[in-house]
Amino acid sequence: MMNERDKPVGQQKPMDTAATRHKKSDAKPAKLGREVQARLGQQLRAMYDDVVNQGVPDRFADLIKRIDDNGNKDRQ
Amino acid sequence: MPMDESVRNSILAAVPSLRAFAISLCGNVDRADDLVQETMLRAIANIDSFQPGTNMSAWLFTILRNHFRSEYRKRRREVEDSDGHYADSLKSQPEQHGHVEFNEFREALSQLPADQREALILVGASGFSYEEAAHICGCAVGTIKSRVNRARTRLAEILNVNSAEDYGPDEQTRAVLAGGE
Q1: CA nearest to A47 within chain B
Q2: Are residues B112 and B175 in the same domain?
Q3: φ and ψ of B5, to 5 deg
Q4: Same domain, B113 and B151
Q5: Option in B125, B146, B150 nearest A44 (CB)
Q6: Does B2 sit within 8 Å of A72, measured CB to CB?
């Protein structure tokens, strides 16, 4: 099981946890800088929120409405 | 049977984030919308297996994720046979915003292994806890943590950013010049 002490990203910590358990694929330091992580996180959320902010396209509102209508018909 | 009003509203309310998750997973808006529609239909058909009081959004994400995984396994061979690169589907995506940096980021995201990509999105963008993400992906919390870490490291490698200075104006200019397709 995973060590509960593992800190979220960006926290500097001695290399005694998960980071040492999976093998390193190259010589670069595995830890990313805090600023780089923050920037990657921003880009990821910006990309994601761009879609979220499009709301519910008609296609899905219509789908739910059709299902509702069918359900009501079945009941009658 | 008519749909319970609160179920109906919860499903509709989850649509925007389900779409964002689906697009991040498959990199193609049309396919993502098909995934979302199939997820909604499956959720409604299997609503009895939803436990009231638990997180509806996480339940819907689980359905979408599992459906994507089984579709992906089926399609991967077709896609590789037809054009060699799964990432090519990104290029058919309509340009919705003029941000070259965005496209570069999307492209980098598409190069991550699927398990790392989904873990990173669930935790880093959808706002699920490591525990919720582990539940959605059907794996241990430690596995999610390690996938998220590897995903971040790999993204930084692909985007060639090692320090915040790599995000300067020069980098953006380079991206504009390189991204002229």
Answers
A1: B102
A2: yes
A3: -60, -40
A4: yes
A5: B125
A6: yes
Q: Residue B79: give the domain boundaries.
A: 1-94
ipTM value greater than 0.95 = no
Looking at chain A, which runs of residues are DSSP E strands? none
Q: What count of CB pairs under 8 Å joins A to B? A: 125
| B12 with A61: Cβ contact below 8 A | yes
Would you state the pLDDT for residue B104?
87
Per-residue pLDDT, B160: 83
Total tally of structural domains belonging to chain B: 2
CA distance B105 to B99: 10
* Confidence class for position B100, pLDDT limits 50, 70, 90: low
What Cα–Cα distance (Å) separates residue B69 from each residue in B26, B56, B90, B98, B99?
10, 20, 18, 31, 29
* Highest-scoring range by mean pLDDT, A5-9, A19-23, A29-33: A29-33
* Domain end call among B51, B67, B94: B94
